[in-house]
Write a structure and sequence with these properties.
It is built from no helices and 11 strands. It is mostly beta strands. The strands form 2 sheets. Strands 2, 4, 5, 6, 9, 10 and 11 form a 7-stranded mixed β-sheet that branches.
């Protein structure tokens, strides 16, 4: 299993970024996926969920209405569109896959820095 996040960077408050997660080594199109973030000095925070078909999504209250999760199963890629970014969104963002045995897989993450 390999998960590779990209798309992070430095952006001003109010700006937007689109994160991607390229997945391989498992049946992506049959797998639910999540985004998790970890801010400096803090624990992991669940951000968003999408089911295997893309028809069901969920968001943390802290990002609801600003972030949109999506996926392209033909390209084995997960996305997170982040709009109206705030300084408190600064974190390393990880995509996560949990297999049928409940084993977690993580990428190396992509850093998002939002300046005020």
């Amino acid at each position: 299993v390999q998960l590779v996040e990209s798309g992070g960077g430095l952006v001003q408050a109010g700006g937007s970024l689109r994160l991607s997660c390229a997945a391989s080594g498992f049946t992506f199109g049959s797998s639910d996926m999540t985004w998790v973030r970890q801010a400096p000095g803090k624990g992991p925070e669940w951000v968003s969920y999408i089911n295997s078909g893309g028809g069901a999504t969920a968001y943390a209250d802290s990002v609801k209405g600003r972030f949109t999760i999506s996926r392209d199963n033909a390209k084995n890629t997960l996305f997170l569109q982040m709009d109206s970014l705030k300084p408190e969104d600064t974190a390393v963002y990880y995509c996560n896959y949990k297999n049928i045995m409940q084993k977690d897989y993580w990428g190396k993450g992509t850093l998002v820095t939002v300046s005020s």
